[in-house]
Amino acid sequence: MGRNSWIDKLISVAIALMLWVYVVSVINPQSNTVITGVPVQLLNQEVLAASGLAIAGSEHYSVDVHVEGTRSDILSLQSDQITATADLFGMSKGQNYLVVAVSVPEKITVTEVRSNRIPVLIDELVSVQKAVTLHILDGSAGSEVGGVQLNPQEVGVSGAKSIVDNVRSVRVEVSQSSLSDAATAQLLTAVAVDSEGNPVPHVRLSHAYVELSASLYRTKTVPLEVPVEGIPAGEAEITRKEIPASITVKGPRQALENVEAIAARPLNIQGITESISLVIEPILPESIEVASDSLPLEAHFTLVSMSEVTFIYKAEDIWVYNVPSGYRIQVLSPEVTVSARGEEAVISILQAKDLQPAINAANVSLNAQEATLTTRYAQQLVKISIAPASARIRVTVGNNPPGGQE
After folding, report:
1. Would you give the end-to-end CA distance of the chain in angstroms?
2. Which residues of 304-322 are buried (b: 16+ CB within 10 A; e: fewer)?
3. pLDDT one-digit tens code per residue, 304-322
């Protein structure tokens, strides 16, 4: 009886082992899966910053983790049970590759990490102050945002130098429809932007928000008076000046009603030697501002180097044309001086024949004693002076071919 009891027990144990093997191998077999997008935690970022370095780009990395385990363990595996880390300690400026370490629950095995080495570009850590600029949305004709106060007016931008160098300003945006005649205060989200107004990622701002206080002003266009004082240096002359004749201003409705014209401080061009643009400084009444339509408010002066040439002609050098048939015309003036003034490039190529004095005898009468002098060829971009302005002549009747000169 005792012997049979032991045999029964052994048989029971064997059956139990067989059942366990069956359960493990058939009902709960080995399985594997891939957990995608596991975020990588970067360690020792404070050590990197203490060394004056920063990551030049995104600080957010992820990997795909291949794991293996029993079917039940794999099914119960949660993504937050997998952690991936990469250590920044000892990294230097330039391209670095960080080894990713993955931790999983005890019964799970990591078979592969893609990619187990992540490239990280490290650059010098810098911090600069950038001006806050206001961008208006939903603008409408006849009104404009005014009385603008921004707090702070500058925001610190920090990060990798190669990225911070792209930041032009820190922009905040407001919808014009959210403002009224009374001053309105609101918090606006600050965004670092480049020279084209595109957001610059991967930088830190000292202030995430900027406080705006502003009102909705009316606009009005009135005459602008801009005095100009002084003359250019040497032989230079102003050939063109562009000064706006009107200005668009903005302000509260009541203050704007009294504005009929705006005067500006005089522009000083004394002694200038080259073309120049000068900022116009309007003298504005209280509560009145320059509207965006008139910005930038500038005057432009185009300057050229001038030169002068002089030729002296004798009486026989003067060309007399359109002489009436039967007339003879004799020039009695001993000398005529012709001067030309203009741009140096034009004057430098003029020759005596180009400025030859001439008399149009078509309307000369028999008793005429003087005739107006001109030049034989018209000269564009040149100011011509002739001295004397007319020549003494003697008109006689004789045999002379039509159109000829004595």
Report:
1. 168
2. bebbebebebebeebebee
3. 989 999 999 999 999 999 9
Whether 66 contacts 112, CB under 8 Å: yes
Contact 346, 385 (CB under 8 A): no
Give, in order, the Cα–Cα distances in Å from 196 to each of 168, 177, 200, 265.
9, 25, 11, 33
Strands 101-103 and 267-268, by their bridges, are unpaired
pLDDT of residue 237: 87
For 94, phi and psi rounded to 5 degrees?
A: 120, -165
Distance separating alpha carbons of residues 10 and 16, to the nearest angstrom:
10
| C-alpha separations of 112 from 35, 43, 53, 64 in Å | 11, 21, 31, 8
**CA 12/CA 149 separation, integer angstroms:** 88
Spell out a b/e string for 326-353, using b for 16 or more CB atoms within 10 Å of the CB, else e: ebebebebeebebebbbeeebbeebeee
- The average pLDDT across 96-110 equals 94
The residue to which tokens 């366990």 are assigned: 20
Task: Please give the Cα distance from 265 to 245 (Å, whole number).
Answer: 14
Backbone angles phi and psi of 192, in degrees to 5: -75, 130
What's the rounded Cα separation, in Å, for the pair 149 and 160?
30
Residue type, 299: A
- DSSP-H helix ranges across 86-238: 161-164
Distance CA 127, CA 159 (A): 7
Distance between CA 135 and CA 299 in Å, rounded?
26
Q: Judge if the upstream peptide bond of residue 252 is cis by omega within 30 degrees of 0.
A: no
Q: Which helix (H) or strand (E) holds 403?
A: none
**CA atoms of 310 and 305, how far apart (whole Å):** 17
Q: Are strands 236-242 and 282-283 parallel, antiparallel or unpaired?
A: unpaired
- Count Cβ atoms below 10 Å from residue 83 Cβ, excluding itself: 14
pLDDT digits (tens, 9 = 90+) for 6-55: 777 777 777 777 766 565 555 567 889 999 999 999 999 999 999 999 99
Number of residues written out for the chain? 406
Among 53, 126, 41, 58, residue whose Cα is nearest residue 92: 53
